[in-house]
Amino acid sequence: MLRLIRANQLQFVTQTVAFVLCAAYVVVLVRSRDATSVTNAAEWLRHLATWAPVAPLLVRVRRKHAMRGAWLSMAIGVLTFNLASEVRRVDFPFLVHLVTPTLREALFSVSYLAIAVAVAIIMQQSFGPRANSVRLDGVIAGLALASLASMYGFRQSIEISGRSLLAEFNLFNPVLVMVLLVLLGAGLVPKHFHTDMTTSLLLVGLAIIAAGDVVALNPESFSAWTSFALVSLAPPLGLGFLALAAWPPIDRPSRPLEQFVVARGLNLIPVIFGALSVAILAISVSRPSLESTRLMALGALALVISRMVLTQSEMRQLGRNNFLEARTDHVTGLANRRAFLEDGEARLAALEDHEQLGIVLIDLDGFKEVNDSIGHAYGDELLRVIGQRFSNTIATRGTLARLGGDEFAYTFVVDASTDPIASVNELAQTLANPVSLDGTKVRVSASIGVALWPQHGSTHAELLRSADVAMYEAKHRRGGVCVYRDEIDLNSRERLALINELRTAIERRRLTLHFQPTHDLRTGEVHGVEALVRWQHPTLGLLQPDYFVPLAERVGLIVPLTRTVLDLAITELARLDRNGYHLQMNVNISQWDLMDEHLPESIGRILQWYDMSPERITLEVTESSLGHDAVRAKRSLNLLRSSGVKISIDDFGVGYSSMSQLLELPVDELKIDKSFVMALESDPRAISLIRSIIEMARALQLTVTAEGIENARNFESLRGAGADIIQGEFFSLPLTREELDEFLARPLDQHLAEPTEAAETPPRRRHLRVV
Fold this sequence. Notes:
Elements: H1 7-31, H2 40-51, H3 54-62, H4 68-86, H5 103-127, H6 132-153, H7 155-161, H8 164-187, H9 197-217, H10 224-244, H11 268-286, H12 291-325, H13 337-349, E1 355-365, H14 367-374, H15 376-394, E2 398-404, E3 407-415, H16 421-429, E4 435-437, E5 440-442, E6 445-452, H17 460-476, E7 480-483, H18 493-507, E8 511-520, E9 526-537, E10 541-543, H19 545-555, H20 558-578, E11 584-589, H21 591-594, H22 599-609, E12 617-622, H23 630-642, E13 646-652, H24 659-664, E14 669-672, H25 674-678, H26 685-699, E15 703-707, H27 712-721, E16 725-727, H28 737-744, H29 748-751
Parallel strand pairs: 6-7, 9-11, 11-12, 12-13, 13-14, 14-15, 15-16
Antiparallel strand pairs: 1-3, 1-6, 2-3, 4-5, 8-9, 8-16, 9-10
């Protein structure tokens, strides 16, 4: 029947029986007026109540758990305690000629030792393996208190017994219980005395047993009835609480000692009880006392010295652990940011004249997608695998660290004659093989930035910043290795000054425009001009757009730059109208301008101010810019086209346009990329490709412009292929406003050379200023 009862139910039943028996005995004893009125039935009830706690402890031992050894030792202790209570005083035969302790006291001592072992195991589980100083404090306090108790509290018992060895043996049990109590109490100090149910029940049970022992050793200090009642109640009540402690689930991982804040008062324990032991030794010299009293006091003092040594050792170990922990990344086991910075400073300070220091920053591309798709746990595993690959590749050549997130760093020192990028390329190659995560093959790439001393910085902080700039440039290029260069540093002092100057130039309209004419092959006349922005810098001279337009895109100045260019272009178009030249004006806009929903409104206001038709303006959009956000780009182009301006696809043939896109987009013109025109000189297939583009544009009713015409052969080929408009240096370089007026004032036959001349250079180029 019992086999069918679950372990928890069986333990509950046995503990309930033990509790009922103990409670019944308490009631019977309280109703008795003196020791003589206690009946045999009550005495049998006491025996049953004392033996009953053995059952729940044995039930607990039968269950498989981490604390099985502790409760086995506790069960042995309780069982031995009961056996000792039943044994009469019988001397050991081999010590018959000596004043010896009895078998009863020996069994009690074994019982207390078994309980002590159980308590020690439970403390080990609850407080962790590194609470040695806490346990030592408990032993110090226990020995000092026991020494004090043996001198004063148990003096009466010692005088009555007259047998020093037996008296000292009798003191062993209560002293051991006191030590256990102090140990449990000291163990709660790091937890701010926030105890669990198991520890609380153990404390209560041991306290009751200790109280019973104190009363038993000092019976004359209490009345006969009080002494009898306390001594009778202590075993069943104390053992009952020890049995109850087996019920709460304590089979859980212990919390590390470092999670608790150790109270300042804990350090006072060895000081206070060490002083108490010194006082006891001083008093024992001038008055009779047990040898055990002095031994326990001396033991406490010896442990105080051990405690000091242990504290120093623990502090040194804690310092080492804290040092390593503060400089170790817990996910990968590599060095962290602090260790990386310290190592870099040390390596930089120790550099020889023939050496150079390199700093590499590595940012994993696609790591966020891994986290979002299969979880952060697998993301951490990916970091560990990649960190191990990097570490195996680097070996002892430098210091590898994880700075946080998906960013790694590498510091190395090489001879000045050695290629510093070789080891960096080896790191990049380690990512070629995929990583298996939860049965999924994951492949990530990296953006790697490199900075070298002394070329890219004189201090470690400057080098780290330069490597960061290079890394973001690599990320902008969609991966790979990038070595720092001044021109990619948007946040250098020079770059910051240039950005501020560009912002001022845009706000105060200090930009200038150059104009490159376009020619209509059907009429031979100048069809229009393309506005090309220039910046006349006060110290750097005339800057081409390649120098500052990418900078404007990166720092968010491209939209106001485009607004300024449009304003200047339309102003120039109005001036040309007043001079009698009715031309088309082409203006380039970027992908960021397509995100500007107010651009049509801005163009409309300028055109309205000059009373000019919007059809005179053609906005050139690069084919590649349409692929970043096709939906939004289409919406912006529709808004611009509905305002009346024309739309041209610039650099057509090298981007992402498809036939379906051309049908969906409101396009008026295709501008064939100059790379196709340049290929006419070397690849006979180029003319066929150009003809195909022109035929397709004809079918879509689009105008075709060919740019990059540099010689007469190009001109002949494009005219033969059927292009509508041509543009290039064969006819004119970009012109200033004054040069454009001079160019337009020439006769028509001087604008476009006749094909029969077969000129290899632009006609009358001597009249044009090269910019």
